[in-house]
Amino acid sequence: MRTSSLFKRLLGVEKTLIEGVGFEGDDLVVRVRLHKRQQLRCSRCGRRCGLHDGGRGRRRWRAMDLGTVRAWIEGEAPRVLCPTHGAVVSRVTWARPGSGFTRDFEDQVAWLATNTSQSTVGQLMRIAWRTVGRVLRRVVEERGAGVDPLDGLMRIGIDETSYRRGHRYLTERHRIEDAQRRFVADASHEMRTPIAALKGILELLVDGAKDDAEVRDDFIQTMKTEADRLSRLVMDLLTLAKLEAGSLELRLAPEYAVDLIGDVAGVMQTLADQQGVALSVEVANPDMRVSADRDRIVQVLLSFTDNALKHSPSGTTIHLRATPDGSLARFEVIDEGPGIPAEEISRVFERFYRADAARAGGGGTGLGLAIAKEIVEAHGSAIVVDSSAGAGTTFGFDLAAV
Description:
By secondary structure, the chain is α+β, with helices and mostly antiparallel strands. Helix content is about 40%, strand content about 20%. The chain has helices spanning about 1-10, 105-115, 120-125, 130-145, 160-165, 175-205, 215-245, 255-275, 295-310, 340-345, 370-380, and strands spanning about 15-25, 25-35, 50-55, 60, 70-75, 80, 85-90, 255, 280-285, 290, 315-325, 330-335, 385, 395-400. The strands form 4 sheets. The protein has a 5-stranded mixed beta sheet with strand order 9-11-12-14-13. Strands 1-2-5-4 form a 4-stranded mixed beta sheet, covered by helices on one side. A 3-stranded antiparallel beta sheet has the order 3-6-7, with no helix packed on it. The longest helix is centred in the middle third of the chain and has 34 residues, at about 175-205.
């Protein structure tokens, strides 16, 4: 027993059961299992959750070396469905979320990085300097915001000269700047199409097309369509900017869930009829009320329903559903379309992102889901997407019941 406890402590896996120990080549692999009370918890908030799926199966984490022997921890890493954070890998007590190393290993790397050179860290821990940077970012993020990851480091950038000139390779600065550049490029690309169409039509009208009444009227209608598209894009960009800056005020009030769902069905019914798609309104309790900004939540549900309608074959049904869930009310829009591949789900909320050409659709600005995500998060909730190729898609979120 004492030997087992000592072994667990050396490897940083005290809250586990050791299932087996063995060598693979020169590496030691220790197979462990969490105690039952530690299983199936969200890796972001620690909440006990239901099982979503098996994830990638058994995984390994690099542990502290035992002398000259490289050690690994192997264990299950299923995904759980958290009401707040959606489908995430379950928490393991010995490692930080998203890491391939144990906490003890990463803490040792962080300590060495603040007391010695980059080359020494790499040699002692047998890892690359880029890995050191990722480890430091995880440690700093866990210990609190506002801490400079480079404070006290001696040589951790590409070289010491670059570091002294203020190049902060370990911060989020470059990632944020890259995201901003991509956003500007994407927005410019989206605006270029309607502007080019308007310019081309005006040139044709100036060249004489205005003299043909039928052609002129057709061109004017096209110009109106493109101008409306450009206007929607600008308005969506302004809305998204306000949401991200926190300057868009929500007008929260008790609202009946049946009214929110009914507003969406009323707007989308005609479009659904034109495509041969049925809308099914399903509200479990007509008296159920939630705390919400009515216009904004309807906007979110309209975005979900419009997206579902674009990808629903004729003869299928879109379900607009509101169901009680304890102190919460769950809103869902469920379609019977082709679904979204699992690897694409995490990207559907990116600005201007389309999972594939088949889901690109037309008439939208490419910002609907990005705006919906910000609105739902402003309500203190999160959007959960459940989809797989060929099995339809469900977009859902929870609101506080009143």
